[in-house]
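Milestone M4 deliverable, item 7.
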Amino acid sequence: MVWDLVIRGGRVVTPDTVTTTDIAVSEGRIAAVGRGLEAARTIDADGLIVTPGGVDPHCHIEQMSGMGLMNADTFETATRSAAMGGTTSLISFAAQSKGQRLSEAAADYAARAARGAAVDHAFHLILADPGAPDFEADLETLIAAGHRSLKVFTTYNIGLDDAGILRALKIAGRAGALTCIHAENDAIIAEARARLLAEGRTRPLDHAASRPRAAEIEAVARMCRLAEAVRAPVMIFHVSTAEAAAEIRAARARGAPVWAETCPHYLFQTEEVLDRPGLEGAKWMCSPPQRLVADQEALWQALALGDLQVVSSDHAPYRHDGTGKLSAGPDAAFPAIANGMPGLEVRLPLMFDAMVSRGRLGLSRFAELTSAAPARLYGLATKGRIAPGMDADLVLWDPAREHTYGEDDLHDNVGYNPWAGTTVRGWPQRVILRGETVVEEGSYLGTPGTGRWLPRASVGTIPADLTGRPQ
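Output delivered:
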């Protein structure tokens, strides 16, 4: 059999093995994995590592913040950046505004992505106003149409109370959707913020103290109990503390349908990144904030044990100027500074360097945490694995190449790189989406609008086990 394309002789990460082999591609799908495959076109992968295309399930793109600021990235710039870093599928947000029907929010974001997205994509539905017209009917209809995840907050000006979250959990659980949760206790945050401001502590560094670890720990524990009470699956977003990871481990040990993720900025940064002159530290402000070295070690242990199943970017891009971080002026106090950092492009190289080049958990776990697990948990049936029948989304890594990030060398629209000065070993030499090369040797070859929306099947209800595989 002669296929459309063969990637020949790479060290390939399949679901079961890491082996030197060939990958045949036909009509955008993986047709075969084995030696001696023939094709009309061949890509030589000798000396390279071939992994599934990255799946990033936590990205804010063309989204208005609760402060009324639009993200810096469009779908065109964000997905360009994603591809340059090896991510070929992502899940961003369709954010409901107050009074807006959910169906209108979903249609709005779908239209934006259709114009600009150059990688495949899906949406989490952000539930900001359960009192909007036809809320439950719209939610059920959208889930049935393939939007199989939603997001709720326990804080900010769109936070839901426990009754609202339980209502969302019940609807999602019945309909086969996963509820993602930003879990921080709003009252604890409000008290800490007021105290700090009264003391005149307004710097970006004080942002870390304004969101105490207790706020995350309490809310994570409570959300686990709510999921357990109604037997509806949840994903706890951006876990940052050792204690929150321990709460998740305890909940899963009880059989609660709970999964969780963390992000590179919690694994590799501490709150010290905020301690810079003036408002320079604002570039690294995010919520929850970065924590301590001891938390980093606990999060790595949680990844090793399977208590945390996914590493996402939580890409939340704002420029460090009057359109973004500094919209409230050059002397703004921390509560008036937008939270979030760019992360789509750096997630995979940072994790490859740590997990593969430096040997922490290894190549198979790298592919699992950054591709296979997010695809499986969020119902992306043809993504995240190198196996016959899957989309031919592939990253060819040069394991020997080193790269040091510069001040503004990412391909998004943010204007700075929060990882400037960081050197990684292992670099995506070629990125393939559905059989077509979209990045080659540092050149971007993607086309805006060619990314496909990914409708998703039911994520299941209560899993047979808690390894991350829905039943």
